[in-house]
Specification:
Helices cover about 50% and strands about 15% of the residues. The chain has about 200 residues and is an alpha+beta fold. The chain has a domain of about 140 residues: Nucleotidyltransferase, domain 5 (2-Layer Sandwich), CATH 3.30.420. Strand 2 and strand 3 form a beta hairpin. Helix 7 crosses helix 8. The longest helix is centred in the middle third of the chain and has 17 residues. It is globular, with a radius of gyration of 19 Å.
Length: about 200
């Protein structure tokens, strides 16, 4: 590690690789609402934040656990369709609260596809957020609906039934759902969000 009389250690969050302060100051100077998306292994959290001098104020928030308790999502909350639905939920709530536009504040992020799915959900809900068209990969659209999970489950069930039981045990035994019908559960959850958000 560097040392000496002129060495100065960076700010803690920069040193840990959590915050890029040059990007953050540009976002704050814009004075627009920020859409912050944070993804863990099992959940997605999406917030619309207003920056104020005394600290940030959370205007709208959604957590992927809400999908199971309120909107009929019975599958895993740590996958791409769940991230999309969480973003869609925030976008719907924002529209109901007369929030029309915001900007993405993605920070230094992991789980890229899930973050992009949440971004797509926010945009599809009708919130105006500037973005480049090439920001989203072509395969994302079908992955959002869970067809990649369905296709993998069908293939595995026909070719390796034992592995199918093991890999999808969380879906079959724990949640008692058919992994080959994820897109149907996704469509039902979208309708529930539109009607109840």
């Amino acid at each position: 590690m560097p040392h000496g009389p002129r060495y100065r250690r960076p700010v803690r969050r920069r040193f840990e690789g959590k915050t890029n302060y040059h990007k953050r100051i540009k976002l704050l100077k814009s004075r627009k609402l920020r859409v912050v998306i944070r993804v863990s292994n099992n959940h997605t959290r999406v917030q619309i934040i207003q920056s104020k001098r005394g600290g940030d104020k959370i205007m709208i928030s959604a957590f992927s656990k809400e999908l199971a308790s309120k909107y009929g999502w019975t599958a895993n909350t740590g996958n791409i369709p769940a991230s999309y639905l969480t973003g869609y939920l925030v976008g719907s709530r924002a529209k109901k609260n007369n929030i029309q536009e915001a900007i993405f504040d993605l920070g230094i992020f992991y789980h890229k596809n899930r973050v992009l799915a949440a971004c797509k959900g926010i945009i599809d809900a009708g919130l105006q957020v500037p973005y480049h068209e090439e920001f989203f990969p072509e395969s994302l659209e079908e992955r959002i609906k869970g067809t990649h999970i369905e296709n993998y489950a069908k293939k595995l069930k026909s070719e390796e039934p034992e592995n199918y039981e093991q890999i999808f045990s969380g879906y079959i035994k724990k949640n008692k759902i058919n992994p080959q019908k994820i897109s149907q559960i996704f469509s039902d959850s979208i309708k529930n969000i539109e009607n109840n958000a």
